[in-house]
Amino acid sequence: MPGSRITFLDGQAGQPQALERVITHVRQQLDGPDLARLREARRPLLAGIGASYAALAVPVEVLRGHGVPAQRVLSSEIEDGLHGFDTDLLIGVSQGGRSSETIAAFKAAEGPATLAVLNVTPSPLGELAAFTVDLGNEPDSYASTVGFTATVVALDLIAGAIAGRAGDPWADIAERAATVRARAAEVVSCLRSRAALCVAADCVASGASRVSAEEAALLLREVPRMPAAASVTRNYLHGEMESAGNTLHLVFGDGREVELARSLSAAGHLTLLITTQDVDPADSLGVVRLPESAPSARVVLETVVVQELVAALSEEREVPIESFVFANDDTKEGGVDAADFELASPVAAA
To answer: Which tens digit of pLDDT belongs to each residue from 105-164?
Structure first.
């Protein structure tokens, strides 16, 4: 059954404390005997759909950084089984545990152990899995706030356990998230009216921050209903940026991304750079500076900035945050549940 719903704004407000609860909860599970076998995995395959798929770029980055081969796939790619994949652990992510594609992938999987990463328990996906890691049934908004960032945290901790990493990057995350949100609010307030008039958005990043770009593109579509796409930095430079024009650009990173942001803004294209570098804002360039953090923690902080932006754009464009237009009844096990839309508009629930 679906977890309890809160508003997007309540999710933002309570996110720092929720992250602390999830960190404690997941650490306790990973320290228990039931999950000791995870540390034996050498070839994990990670599957999800939508925002869950975006989040999987974090554990892939962590695992590869520790010499563990890992890849992510859309759950729909393995609905017919794991043919062609050499894996000893299938990790499936679904916050509610009802994503039809991920459930189908688990039903078709033969051979490797299966781990379900969930927020809601019990759930159909959890019942199929050999192992589960849950977030503790944290209340979440329909356009996910806490559920998404907490999933990133859990996936980092799981990847760290598989890789044998010493320690983790989550100390003081609540304080850092609250500080970054305040900074983001100041920057967003200066560009929100112009950003709301843009016809589309490009979200650009590399490495683990691809998670942030992909989640930003999804939230921009879900919340203020702005067409948006996510691109990898080097690929964006090879032609994709040529379509800039009355577009909003979200650029995440410290390397080539800084020059990219400057180039776009110098050409008059509204750009928001999220970086740890000391970059001066300029005409058409807003800058949110992040504290130095490990890649996984940085993704959470980048997502905090994105949440602040989409909330502001929703208000500027007069689109209620909790209103969704389409209710696809084949994306969740058991179809659409009324609770999925309890905060949505009558149009979304129809």
So the answer is: 999 998 899 999 999 999 999 999 999 999 999 999 999 999 999 999 999 999 999 999
- How does pLDDT run across 40-67, given as a tens digit for each residue? 899 999 999 999 999 999 999 999 999 9
Question: Looking up tokens 């990463």, which residue turns up?
Answer: 117
Burial class of 159 by CB neighbour count within 10 A (0 to 12, 13 to 18, 19+): buried
Cis-peptide into 224, omega within 30 deg: no
Q: Provide the token pair at 257.
A: 């991304």
Which of 146, 201, 150, 147 has its CA nearest to residue 313? 201
Q: In whole angstroms, how far apart are CA 345 and each of 7, 12, 334?
A: 13, 20, 22
Angstrom CA distances, 276 to 46, 179, 294, stand at 29, 14, 11
The pLDDT of residue 298 is above 90: yes
The gap from C-alpha 18 to its chain's centroid, in whole angstroms, comes to 16
Nearest to 248 by CA among 218, 278, 226, 233: 226
Q: Which helix (H) or strand (E) holds 210?
A: helix 210-222
Produce one character per residue of 186-198: b if its CB has 16 or more CB atoms within 10 Å, e if not: ebbeebbeebbeb
Contacts of 85 (CB under 8 A, 6+ apart): 45, 73, 78
Helix axes 295-316, 57-65, angle to 10 degrees: 160
